[in-house]
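@channel sequence for tomorrow's demo:
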Amino acid sequence: MVLAIVLVGAAALGIHELRLSGERGAVSTGPVLQACSVDKIDLAVSVQRRSGTRFSFLTVTPINRGGPCQLRLPLTVKLADPTGAALNIKGNEASTILQGALPKDHPIVAYSWANWCGTSPAIVETMPSRRQSYPVAPGAAPPCSDSIGEVGTPSVLEPAILLDSPSSARAPLGVASTFSLLAQCGLQVVDFDASYWDLVAGQSIAAINMRGMMTLVNENGARFQSSGTTLYFSRHVGSLIVDPNSLLCD
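structure tokens (generated this afternoon):
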């Protein structure tokens, strides 16, 4: 079976507006803009698995081929087979509104997807005004929970949380400072040097809470050391997408 993700224009559907924490573009100030022309809006769709976790993130962002405008685009996110039939996934066919002032704002719709036991490869298919397909990279879909003994656990698609306001102070280059890593399905949130950070691929963390020393090794790299354990991080660009639940990790 080939998986398709279908984004459908949903003017005729019962739509609720999804407001994600930290979502940009939900409220804009400044001059009143004309509405965006749908035929000048493309959608960028991505499915990526977060390193060290058992879930993937599905994101949709607009690409504006016209001038400044106010976007309000109803969408329905649908995980479907090649015939367009919705797959049996809890939270499937979720409706939302992609909105914001372009290009000033950076609107994004994000979903967390857990437990996929279907067959790869997968494609992402979008509407409303026309169909566009995007390949999903091997390994991007979330792993099947059957492999960890949770046979029969449903696949779940649900709104993710967006964080875009780090609270940490700037860190001096090359100076180690005391730091705590709180693991919640991998490293959910690492807030250091006024930025969020991603665990470099190929690493994992087993402890729930690790205290050690964090060092800014260069502008976009950091190193955490604790009791013989060394972990490397890269600076995250843009809003950090966080799964709303604490799921089982690798």
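heads up for whoever presents: The chain has two domains: 3-162, 165-242.
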